[in-house]
Amino acid sequence: MRANIIFTALAAAVCSVSAASVEKRQSLARVVTSCVKANTAALTFDDGPWVYLVDSYDVSKALVAANATGTFFFNGNNYECIYDADSVKRVQYAYSKGHQIGSHTWAHLDLTALTWDQIHDEMWRVEQALTKIIGVVPAFMRPPYGNYNDLVRQASFIRGQVLAIWDFDSEDSDGATPAQSESFYDQLVARRPSNVIALNHETEETTVHQVLPYAIKKLQAAGYKLVSLAECTGLPAYQSVTTPGVRDSTWTCVR
């Protein structure tokens, strides 16, 4: 009789843990598609860290000169390996200037085409890199191509992330000319939405040299304050902030 009672108690405990695990797995991460603070605009930049961030015209310098804060969604191994010396300097520089750093996953794969384990791997590897390089675990993750499904949201929830989408696209990565991207900004300002999350790409030279300066002036002239995604949404930028690591043999994109 006692054995049956013990077995029943153990079974109930296992079921309770399993139910909690299933509930956690089924929980969906929040998806942010717009700001909540009026008269704010978040200029966001995908696909870096790339050469134009600090090495050429310098995206960060343009933002800082305008008293603006940007949000950079970095990959781990897209255009270049994030652990390369130049890439490390770019990440450190952007963070040191007060810009928000977010995850754009490791290799810029379509997360909706991946398995549960592959999704976590794409997220974890870039989070690990950012922890080593600048000592932060980002609270925002932008899925490549803006693609996500419930599996991606479940993985993001477990990882403590918010999915960051946008409500304005400069279309610079889709072949838009600088003039076209500027026209899109003109149309945006003419509509005068309460707030804006703008998608741009720091890997596009014309975006950096032509469109970004135009967008900054246009948005500020219309009365928008250019802030980080965290500020315009009222959400924390990072899950944790700690001391950066020291380069060692693990700072590599080669498995």
UniProtKB/TrEMBL annotation:
<dbReference type="GO" id="GO:0098552">
    <property type="term" value="C:side of membrane"/>
</dbReference>
<dbReference type="GO" id="GO:0071555">
    <property type="term" value="P:cell wall organization"/>
</dbReference>
<dbReference type="InterPro" id="IPR011330">
    <property type="entry name" value="Glyco_hydro/deAcase_b/a-brl"/>
</dbReference>
<keyword id="KW-0961">Cell wall biogenesis/degradation</keyword>
<dbReference type="GO" id="GO:0016810">
    <property type="term" value="F:hydrolase activity, acting on carbon-nitrogen (but not peptide) bonds"/>
</dbReference>
<keyword id="KW-0732">Signal</keyword>
<keyword id="KW-0472">Membrane</keyword>
<keyword id="KW-0479">Metal-binding</keyword>
<feature type="domain" description="NodB homology">
    <location>
        <begin position="39"/>
        <end position="227"/>
    </location>
</feature>
<dbReference type="Pfam" id="PF01522">
    <property type="entry name" value="Polysacc_deac_1"/>
</dbReference>
<keyword id="KW-0336">GPI-anchor</keyword>
<protein>
    <submittedName>
        <fullName>Carbohydrate esterase family 4 protein</fullName>
    </submittedName>
</protein>
<keyword id="KW-0119">Carbohydrate metabolism</keyword>
<dbReference type="GO" id="GO:0005975">
    <property type="term" value="P:carbohydrate metabolic process"/>
</dbReference>
<dbReference type="GO" id="GO:0046872">
    <property type="term" value="F:metal ion binding"/>
</dbReference>
<keyword id="KW-0378">Hydrolase</keyword>
<keyword id="KW-0325">Glycoprotein</keyword>
<dbReference type="InterPro" id="IPR002509">
    <property type="entry name" value="NODB_dom"/>
</dbReference>
<keyword id="KW-0449">Lipoprotein</keyword>
<dbReference type="GO" id="GO:0005886">
    <property type="term" value="C:plasma membrane"/>
</dbReference>
<feature type="signal peptide">
    <location>
        <begin position="1"/>
        <end position="19"/>
    </location>
</feature>
<keyword id="KW-1003">Cell membrane</keyword>
